[in-house]
Amino acid sequence: MRAARFYDRKDIRVEDIPEPELKPGTVAIDVAWCGICGSDLHEYLEGPLFIPAAGHPHPISGESAPVVMGHEFSGTITALGEGVDDLEVGQSVVVEPYIICGVVDTGPG
């Protein structure tokens, strides 16, 4: 797949990379639209800010630069990882890409 990957300040490369592995609790999405937002621009001009620098993995995801850019996107679910039972293949989705560790209280609802 083609992806824009952040390597370092003012170093973003569009590359061919392998499709990500479908892990338990995750879904595969055929991306229809992906935006560029202010945080992407700040990473490019001033980063790394939120993207973990090469050799300094994120404490939850384990990722460090280079990483795939584009955190504002929508698309269609193409596959469900083990344990995903509240979504369906073919469903249209918009992604809110936060990594949260532990239990999250979603409040009344």
Descriptive overview:
- The chain is mainly beta.
- It has a single domain (about 1-95), classed as Quinone Oxidoreductase, Chain A, domain 1 (Alpha-Beta Complex), CATH 3.90.180.
- The protein contains 1 helix and 6 strands.
- The strands form 2 sheets. A 3-stranded antiparallel sheet has the order 2-1-4, with no helix packed on it.
- The protein is globular, with a radius of gyration of 15 Å.
Task: List strands and helices in order, with pairings.
Elements: E1 2-8, E2 11-16, E3 27-35, H1 38-46, E4 67-68, E5 72-80, E6 92-94
Antiparallel strand pairs: 1-2, 1-4, 3-5, 5-6
Q: From the alpha-carbon coordinates, what is the Rg to the nearest angstrom?
A: 15 Å
Q: Examine the secondary-structure arrangement and name the CATH architecture.
A: Alpha-Beta Complex
Q: Which structural category do the helix and sheet elements fall into?
A: mainly beta
Helix percentage: under 10%
Q: If you consult CATH, what is the topology?
A: Quinone Oxidoreductase, Chain A, domain 1
CATH top level? Answer: Alpha Beta
Number of domains: 1
**Backbone shape:** globular
**Would you tell me the overall average pLDDT?**
89
Give the gist of this structure.
The chain is mostly beta strands and 109 residues long.
Highlighted features:
single chain, 109 residues, mainly beta, Quinone Oxidoreductase, Chain A, domain 1, 3-stranded antiparallel beta sheet, 1 helix, globular
